[in-house]
What does this fold into?
Amino acid sequence: MDKRIKKIDHAVERQARDQFFEAVQRGEMSFAEGVRQIRKLSKLTQPEFAKHRGISLGSLRQIESGTGNPQVETLNKIGEVFGLEAGFVTKRKRGEG
It folds into this structure.
């Protein structure tokens, strides 16, 4: 049995998703952090998530590490699972977040 499979607490999952969306709305999360959080909230490993979203594992790893330069199409594939798409946000000032 997969050791990652645990009893699901839907209230805890909903709270984690709500906190994710609130952080996104406030601009408190870097893109790399956001992608990593989406994947973790989806309860998938990097290889599983990359396959699920139709992107290469190498691209996902680069994006999550903050070293990637993904195309908008790739960004939209990642965000689509949470109803998100690539767009402009207010830039964080140095020293924030």
